[in-house]
Amino acid sequence: MKFRKLFILTLVLSLWGGTMLFADSASQRVRVIVNGNELDDAGMLTDGKTYLAVRQIANTLQSIVLWDEDTKKVTLYKPNVHMFLFQDSTIFGNVVKGNRITFKVFAQIDNLLTDISAVKVTIEDPQGNESLIQSKNVTIEKDNFWYRTDDTTYTFDTAGKYTIKFYMKMAGSEEWKPVSEKTITAKTS
């Protein structure tokens, strides 16, 4: 009786181990690197097909993802958003640490193939603290438009990279999606 139980247990464990090895070899993790940064668990190779985490890749590429539950369809939108930073009438991208600057953000948007309800512009300091520059509800009926913020005054307290971010809110959604970034470098002198 003991021998029979031991035999059955050995057989079950062998089958289970073999199944786990087969399952592990049937699907493999794929490293996904976007602009030099590796994404966590973004890809898998199964039966010769590569599957990628669409939302994670879209967020990295600053794209908009729409999921249609009824049709089980994923749609990606990548509007072209070009931002320019103006101090008075001068374009800039570098500042001296400690300077308090009044500037405006000018954005030119095209290839907008979906409806949006609002836009916002923020600035993020080198420590990751984000401050709102301006937010506005919009009604856009074409695939391109221009957007300019009001003058904003900001003090660049520390040296490092500050990031201006342009967000869009999809019509019918409350979620803000970042679609463009511009870097301002604050130097010590």
Automatic annotation (TrEMBL):
<dbReference type="InterPro" id="IPR012854">
    <property type="entry name" value="Cu_amine_oxidase-like_N"/>
</dbReference>
<protein>
    <submittedName>
        <fullName>Copper amine oxidase</fullName>
    </submittedName>
</protein>
<dbReference type="InterPro" id="IPR036582">
    <property type="entry name" value="Mao_N_sf"/>
</dbReference>
<feature type="signal peptide">
    <location>
        <begin position="1"/>
        <end position="23"/>
    </location>
</feature>
<feature type="domain" description="Copper amine oxidase-like N-terminal">
    <location>
        <begin position="34"/>
        <end position="111"/>
    </location>
</feature>
<keyword id="KW-0732">Signal</keyword>
<dbReference type="Pfam" id="PF07833">
    <property type="entry name" value="Cu_amine_oxidN1"/>
</dbReference>
